[in-house]
Amino acid sequence: MEPRIISLEMRDYIAEMGAETVNWCMQCGLCTNLCPWRLVPGETSAKFNIRHMQRLGQLGMEGFEEEEILFACSTCGMCQSNCPRGVKIVDNVRAMRAGIVGAGMAPAHLRPILGSTHANGNPWAGPRQKRTEWQGKMEVPNFTPDMEYFLFVCCHSCYDPRSTRIARSIVRLLQQAGVSFGVIGIEESCCGETIHKMGDEELFQKLAHSNIRLFNERGVRKIVTTSPHCLWTFKNEYPQWGGEWEVSHYTQLLSRLVKEGRLSFPGEFARKIAFHDPCYLGRQSGIFEDPRDLLGSVAGVESLELGRSGPLSLCCAGGGGRIWGEVPMGERFGELRITDAVELGAQVLTTACPYCVNMLTDACTSLGKQESLEILELSEVLAKAL
């Protein structure tokens, strides 16, 4: 076996890029045991070991930079939330990626994503001028300073045909409740959460500073997001640069409106429905009850609780740039979740994240279960019951 070279300079560089806690790791291996990659077979599963990656980072050794290793992490946070030493493992992964991407060596399949975000302000290759086409014939007001909420629609729901239905459902619900809200539109840019997790620090800061300047100039005080990813980054990363607003996910706002009697669902939706906790809504942001309360407020719904839910929810595999990854059938986390729902007897699998809807829909189709299991975003379930 060839000797491996320890590089203290590389270790220090990784720490400077944001992996300040990498040396806290005591190599207990709990992170690897909890990782969803352990639940599926295949080449990536065989290569990806989050504990080993942390060790390579501690020693500044080569080996972590391979695409199947460094860019396999979906940043679900399962390892981080259970680490006995409080190691910020997701930050460590992001910092290692930043060194690779900053050197111009991003994986080939992610380069068009980063290029589109540079050129168009979004990763979906959608022209900035078409950012509001998701509205269709709906009358969605433009945000003005006298409005209570600025509705930030995730780029995915601006451009992906399936996901635009999510944005329209949320608008219908907000309008039904008489909420004072508006959108800014084509001047908005991607929140940058996934871009940051992919390792493009410079592009992330460009997006963040642009949005902060825009939102503050427009008089934004409260933001409601359609995506947990936008919620997370607005709340946790924007404040350091002056982006200080009251930020909530739409499920938090709607749950409160139902409790206040401002929103109700007179219709019935008689289905057996299982709720999938998105990583960035549940485990990362601690929001578990609001979506379940909303589901429970719809007449006819029989709520089913999946195994591996709540803080231990199974990742859909869409975070950290993985939504753009090509994964062979049989190696997708989402297929495990579809099997969970089918075995539970669910007729509908719902969630509250556009990324999860994308990944679960693909998994349902690949397993040929689309006739017996419908994938709906929670806002779509609620809109059906208006």
Number of strands: 8
- What would the average pLDDT be, to the nearest integer? 96
Helical residue percent band: 40-55%
Helix run count: 18
Number of domains: 3
Order of helices and strands: HHHHHHHHEHHEHHEHEHEHEHEHEH
The proportion of strand residues reads: 5-15%
Structural class by SSE content: alpha/beta
Poorly predicted parts: none
- Placed side by side, the strands forming the largest sheet appear as 2-1-3-4
Describe the structure.
- Helices cover 43% and strands 8% of the residues.
- The protein has 386 residues and is an alpha/beta fold.
- The strands form two sheets. It has a four-stranded parallel β-sheet with strand order 2-1-3-4. The protein has a four-stranded parallel β-sheet with strand order 6-5-7-8, with helices on both faces.
- The protein has 18 helices and eight strands.
- Helix 17 (354-366) links the parallel strand 7 (348-351) and strand 8.
Architecture blueprint of SSEs:
Blueprint: H1 8-16, H2 30-34, H3 43-47, H4 50-59, H5 67-70, H6 78-82, H7 89-102, H8 111-120, E1 149-152, H9 155-159, H10 161-176, E2 181-182, H11 193-198, H12 201-217, E3 222-225, H13 228-236, E4 246-249, H14 250-259, E5 272-276, H15 289-296, E6 302-304, H16 333-344, E7 348-351, H17 354-366, E8 374-377, H18 378-384
Parallel strand pairs: 1-2, 1-3, 3-4, 5-6, 5-7, 7-8
Helix pairs in contact: 1-7, 4-7, 10-18, 14-15, 16-17
